[in-house]
Design brief:
This protein is of the alpha/beta class and 333 residues long. It is built from 13 helices and twelve strands. It folds into two domains: 207 residues, Spore Coat Polysaccharide Biosynthesis Protein SpsA, Chain A; 106 residues, no CATH class. The strands form two sheets. Strands 1, 2, 3, 4, 5, 6, 7, 10, 11 and 12 form a ten-stranded mixed β-sheet that branches. Strands 8-9 form a two-stranded antiparallel sheet. Strand 6 and strand 7 form a beta hairpin.
Length: 333
């Protein structure tokens, strides 16, 4: 079997059993990757040795430097024409790599995402492609919803979840790597906004299927996860909302972040949420990007994305968060 010109990059921090399932699913692919690079963030459960036993090249960082730093290291080490980024808690269907690459080559897009089911339930989506609101809060389209026909068709996308996706290597040469100050969470949305500003295009290819356990390392409502997401929501505003846009969208920004805080508090993570927001505000000025002529492109991309959130929520049934967000934000623009 000839290999595709794709380097698979897998960051790992413990989770040896889950990593083994991923590596087994890579070995079952109908089209093999050029190489598998496992970037170890300081695992203590034998995950690196397991990866070597499966023929992967292991790159050790020696500490938990976060998702962004780990995948950046793997991307720099990679030899492929494209990079398949894979969370260690993902399992791929045998045609995932082949189907996603075929779709990307056929449509000549810069990055691609497929359909991600929640592990253990092939009727419920973990997500498909990413979306962002004016409030700088993201939604993985379809997350928690049933796999209905609206998710059965290919379409162009702006934002690609790094959970399981392929990026052409040229993307990173053109716009840079993942922002490592995000550590983990929303670094892929930040990259997506930079991709939009550079007019890069993505595609959603539902024939490429995988399953994701979701926040397997720390748990979805672990205080560390909540703190990082809360902080990184602020950092997205700092990096991509110039002062005039922030003033214009202040109402949805406040609404989005306030409502997300209520959700966090309901799950017992209110203190972690507040800590994250304070960290984000302290880092706000250093994270600011200079205003460019591309600010208008980003504004248009976010407006388009928010309209997609609204349309999908209306079709699928509004989640409580989005129902109240659109109410407090003054509707959709």
């Amino acid at each position: 079997m000839s290999a595709l010109p794709i380097s698979a990059v897998v960051p790992v921090y413990n989770g040896r059993a889950l990593l083994e399932k991923l590596l087994q699913s890579i070995a079952r692919q109908t089209a093999a990757p050029l190489e598998v690079i496992v970037v170890d963030n300081g695992s203590r459960d034998g995950a690196p040795d397991l990866a070597r036993n499966y023929g992967a090249r292991v790159v050790s960082i020696g500490r938990n430097a976060g998702f962004a730093a780990a995948v950046n290291r793997g991307i720099r080490e990679a030899r492929g024409e494209a990079i398949a980024l894979l969370n260690s808690d993902v399992e791929l269907e045998p045609k995932w790599l082949d189907a996603l690459w075929e779709g990307m080559e056929r449509t000549r897009v810069d990055f691609g995402a497929g359909k991600i089911f929640s592990a253990g339930d092939d009727d419920i989506l973990d997500g498909t492609f990413d979306l962002i609101s004016r409030g700088a809060c993201a939604w993985r389209a379809g997350s928690g919803k049933r796999d209905v026909p609206v998710f059965h068709e290919e379409q162009g996308i702006r934002f690609c979840p790094a959970t399981a996706a392929i990026y052409r290597s040229s993307v990173f040469r053109r716009i840079g790597y993942f922002e490592e100050r995000f550590e983990s969470y929303l670094e892929d949305v930040d990259l997506g906004l930079r991709s939009a500003a550079a007019n890069l295009k993505g595609g959603y290819f539902p024939q490429a299927v995988c399953r994701h356990r979701g926040s397997a390392t720390f748990g979805q409502w672990n205080p560390r996860v909540v703190r990082l997401i809360a902080r990184n929501q602020v950092l997205l505003v700092a990096r991509h909302y110039p002062p005039d846009l922030l003033r214009k969208w202040l109402r949805p920004v406040i609404a989005g972040h306030f409502l997300w805080g209520l959700v966090a508090a309901r799950h017992g993570c209110g203190i972690a949420y507040l800590r994250g927001k304070l960290e984000g505000l302290r880092a706000f000025s250093p994270m600011r990007l200079p205003a460019t002529a591309n600010s208008g492109i980003i504004e248009d991309a976010i407006l388009e994305s928010e309209r997609t959130i609204y349309d999908l929520q209306r079709k699928l049934g509004f989640d409580g968060y989005w129902k109240f967000y659109f109410l407090l934000a003054g509707g959709v623009r």
